Amino acid sequence: MPGNTSNPEWWRGAAIYQVYLRSFADGNGDGTGDLAGLRSRLPYLAKLGVDAIWLNPWYPSPMADGGYDVADYRGIEPVFGTLAEAEKLIEEAHELGIRTIIDVVPNHASDQHAWFQEALAAGPGSEARERFWFRPGVGDGPPNGWQSIFGGPAWTQVPDGEWYLHLFAPEQPDFNWNNPAVRQEFLDVLRFWFDRGVDGVRIDSAAVLVKDLDSVEESYTDHDGVHDIYREWRRVSDSYGGRILIGEVWLPDQERFANYLRPDELHTAFNFDFLSSAWEPAALRGSIDLTLATHVPIGAPATWVLSNHDVARPVTRYGRAITSWDNADRRDGMPSDLELGRRRARAAALLAMALPGSVYVYQGEELGLWEVEDIPEELIDDPMWERSGHTVRGRDGCRVPLPWSGTEPPFGYSTGEPWLPQPPQWRDLTVEAQEADPGSMLRLYRTALRLRRELLGDGTLTWLPYGDEVIAFRRDSGLVCLVNFGAEPVALPETGSVLLASGPVDGGLLPTDTAVWIMEAR
Ligand code: NOJ
Fold first, then answer.
1. For residue range 339-351, what is the model confidence (pLDDT) as tens digits?
2. Is residue 65 among the annotated active site residues?
């Protein structure tokens, strides 16, 4: 059933599928996913039952950070395809009831971006340098001691002696958002893509655009001035009849987080608190409560995210001794019981999809892929690896190309060699294999997304008293979600019918690490 593309409030309860284009499907056999591959797989996404796709950056890029180093905000990376193909994708997706959301990267460009090249050539004191953060050093060293989020100093020196700021890799110079030309440029970029039918944008590193360079400590997160930028963006998106703005906002302070969701700013923002939570009932219940307490008073829908292209896959994460997620300690290589992780990831999916608001599914999550932790060092592409002095392997393990069909790599993903190697054991996790197995993760996601569209989405929840070891709540439609975290099975309610369960619920008992959706008898 196609999604509803006429409802202007669609985003409040949407299921949004994140396409990491590089690794989704390769249409031309060069080993890298592309628009042709994605277009050929749109029926898969329609059948899965998602309302929208969010694509990671698709712009021309030297790929120093997987495309988050944008060389031209108005083009398509030739390895991915052409602008005409992007327009076709948007159109074809709409025909299937799927909206398209693209990634906009306003904090930094690629060092190959025309403006940065111009700034390098123009030299110190030029207007071109004012679009970035160029400064003289102090003595032989950088202007201050700020560190890059990827490790190492946040400053790089250019041959004429000045230094430029990059919160991420040196190939990603930060824009100076005090400069009106930068502000104007991004308003134009938004219009460029809205004119091409894009339904919304995901804003990369949304909270770090404004900086205080005089501060000794890194001072870039969540400065008040950032809200003026999003108010301007909102005026543009509203003028297009409600295209949506989604912020990537990692902030521990929920009150500050909520500021981004004021009625004249962003529509939604990613809820990383839930993603980061341990697989423990008190932690998850606390996170849900906190999230709803943050969103409900301001009338913004919550978002529920279990994974993305930056964090370890849930199957691996939930199978570890420490199940919480922390960007600072990525737990690379910590052993994981994948069977346990898979059971929990299935339950987590039913939990996330039952909660009020919108939900994100990162490609491969619906297949139960695990984090690939044995990518040969010489193939590691994530800049975190180099920047950390080969101590952090980084995020490639969740970016391995999808297995579609067949019994050996490249599993129908490509006719060539995938840019990252796929584990041969993924033969059991291909779309083809899972289509045929009613107990598969794919079939669970598909059924859950269908039921969710009919019975869940945005609204309210009522907690049900089931004791400390069980998360239990009822949604407006009468659907009850129970997740058992305790060692002992718990009895299901005596009335009501089981619509879906993440594992066996024989004899009216809900085993450990299992979730169930029940429709109350009315
Ligand atoms: C957040 C993105 O999700 C991540 O992949 C990227 O490396 C940084 N922002 C920098 O753009």
1. 999 999 999 999 9
2. no
